[in-house]
């Protein structure tokens, strides 16, 4: 791009041209400009984690522990310093959460449209974001009331669950609350921003951009370096086009899990985004190590609401997840570097890794204290009434 050529001349470049533009200073300032940029984004993620937790009333000591989980995680800072843009995406996602909590819906919509253009996967966050913009949460002319952190939140858990069930049982109420002013504005504005950046990129680089940066990720099939349970099937049929039935079978489990998690946890937005991302990565057709950063940045946001003890449940989750990954890497090493015919063993290791991710996800959900980001209007009124009584 610095010499006036297309970034897509590099066969492995699968991103928006905006990323290449941000890295142009590599050519005339310093060759490690990009790594400094990504490392700065890594630090920014830590700042945003603390800001979001403070906004929700989490004590300072707990905030610092949560921030340290991100900043001193060798996996996350290795991804940024090796030259990967994921910390930038994580920073934008956290900034969107912060804007929504502050009531800056317009700003959140602008950044959401940008991040979906920059990296496709945050599109899965659209529905929970729209659901959290509940008319009872965001009454026109009223200040947002954020649900503060506390040790005991069982009452809010019961209330939120019954509210979700009530809305699902009343289609007319659900339909009436669906098309609200804030939801329409958020959807239109984010879509406009996405189309502007995508349109400019298409004008500059044509169909090559559209295929490499967007469509490629929808049909991506990697036969190597892939943790997914679908990798072996992809490897066996890599030179042949996949049928509609095959694509549907691989997509349906992911879609069903996403919808269930959204319906159940949408009002607890950070937790919903976390479990969504873990499930999305675990059930995806392609899983690479950099994808894990997507949910690592959200993990510190949910820890203050977890009843899980580090000893022994927390350690067992870490141990199971790490061992399943190391087990996969062992077989991957034998295949890639030693040339051993261990495809079946590697496929079984992928199944084991999916089981480990599922078990850890279930453990996290069971030990989580459900807490809506915003106090619903009905709940605020009932609380005031109890205080007066």
In short:
With 389 residues, the chain is an all-alpha fold. It is built from 18 helices and no strands.
If you had to describe this structure to a student in words, what would you say it looks like?
α12 packs antiparallel against α13 (269-282). With 389 residues, this protein is mainly alpha-helical. The protein has 18 helices and no strands. It has helices at residues 17-22, 33-55, 60-71, 74-81, 86-101, 105-118, 126-132, 154-169, 171-178, 181-218, 231-236, 244-265, 269-282, 292-296, 299-302, 310-336, 343-366, 377-388.
Compute the gyration radius: what is it?
22 Å
Mean pLDDT: 83
Helix/strand order, N-terminal first: HHHHHHHHHHHHHHHHHH
Shape: globular
- Percent helix among the residues? 55-70%
- The CA-CA distance between the termini, in Å, is 68 Å
Unreliable runs: 151-169, 378-389
Strand content: under 5%
Number of strands: 0
- Biggest β-sheet, characterized? none
Q: What is the count of helical runs?
A: 18
Structural class: mainly alpha
List keywords for this structure.
mainly alpha, 389 residues, 67% helix, membrane, transmembrane helix
Structural topology:
Blueprint: H1 17-22, H2 33-55, H3 60-71, H4 74-81, H5 86-101, H6 105-118, H7 126-132, H8 154-169, H9 171-178, H10 181-218, H11 231-236, H12 244-265, H13 269-282, H14 292-296, H15 299-302, H16 310-336, H17 343-366, H18 377-388
Helix pairs in contact: 2-3, 2-4, 2-5, 5-6, 6-10, 12-13, 13-17, 16-17
InterPro entries: PIG-M (IPR007704)
Family: Belongs to the PIGM family.
Organism: Papaver atlanticum
